[in-house]
Design brief:
It is a single chain. This protein is of the alpha/beta class and about 250 residues long. The chain folds into two domains: about 90 residues, ATPase, nucleotide binding domain (Nucleotidyltransferase, domain 5, 2-Layer Sandwich), CATH 3.30.420; about 150 residues, Nucleotidyltransferase, domain 5 (2-Layer Sandwich), CATH 3.30.420. The protein has seven helices and eleven strands. The strands form two sheets. The chain has a six-stranded mixed sheet with strand order 6-9-8-7-10-11, with helices on both faces. A five-stranded mixed sheet has the order 3-2-1-4-5, sandwiched between helices. Strand 2 and strand 3 form a beta hairpin. Helix 3 packs across helix 7. The longest helix is centred in the last third of the chain and has 28 residues.
């Protein structure tokens, strides 16, 4: 049984994988000041609530875009499970050819997404990860990672709007009753939800124009299930893309 963890700026996604079966997945808040003991308690609680005997964990792998949290989580996993987690980074085999200007700058989460997407879906493809930032990545028919686009995530856009205005309230990330809002709350919901859906569609269309061919489009991340249904084109939602990718990388390097 392998523990797979992705540390993002806002959330940590953790799960246990046995063979090809994902036994559980949980989303935790990324606590930038939490101690090793505090993270140990969080993971122990997640294991117990999902009926997982953490003493049976044989290995672990972590991808992270928050270096200050990585070592704390690594130490917490060792304290709890007595395993040294593998860290996705330079020197780790991925099987992905990265042809951007500086491959060292590519976030490990995007690498992990790409590993899983090329394994499961046809290429060329466009991979959307909706986290703190929304990233849109292009992978060509040779399975080469070409690069992509980064735009503010749904929550970041919402918080910036509310933080820079004096009378606009916070809203839930849900589909409004109609696109043309007849009140302030529905108008904000329409702008946030359909605005992000439209941005995704627009960038995907332009990626395909530049690539010169139609692509398989896959979306993952915390808000993919809320935004993708508002898009007019076919987009596959795969909530477990990161966990699958982490397990694939673990198997390539064990």
């Amino acid at each position: 049984m392998i523990l797979v963890i992705d540390i993002g700026n806002t959330n940590i996604v953790a799960g246990c994988v046995e063979g090809k079966e994902i036994l559980f997945r949980e989303r935790l808040s990324t606590a930038h000041r939490a101690t090793m003991l505090e993270y140990s308690v969080l993971f122990k609680t997640a294991f117990e609530m999902n009926g997982i005997d953490y003493k049976k964990i044989d290995g672990a792998i972590i991808s992270s875009v928050v270096p200050s949290v990585t070592n704390v989580v690594k130490e917490a996993i060792f304290k709890l499970c007595s395993v040294h987690p593998m860290i996705v980074g330079p020197g780790v085999k991925t099987g992905i050819s990265i042809v951007i200007d500086n491959p060292a700058q590519l976030g490990s989460d995007l690498v992990v997404d790409a590993v899983a997407s090329v394994e499961e879906y046809s290429v060329p493809q466009i991979v959307i990860d909706m986290g703190t930032a929304t990233t849109i990545s292009a992978i060509d028919s040779k399975k080469q990672f070409l690069g992509g686009a980064i735009l503010p995530g749904v929550a970041v856009s919402h918080d910036a709007l509310i933080g820079r205005t004096s009378q606009l309230p916070k809203v839930a990330f849900e589909k409004p009753k109609k696109i043309i809002g007849s009140n302030t709350i529905d108008s904000i919901k329409s702008g946030i939800m359909y605005g992000n859906a439209g941005a995704i569609e627009g960038i995907v269309d332009r990626f395909e124009e530049e690539l010169g061919e139609k692509c398989t489009v896959i979306a993952t991340g915390g808000l993919a299930k809320a935004i993708v249904p508002l898009c007019k084109r076919d987009i596959i939602v795969d909530e477990d893309l990161l966990l699958k990718g982490l397990m694939l990388i673990y198997e390539k390097n064990k």
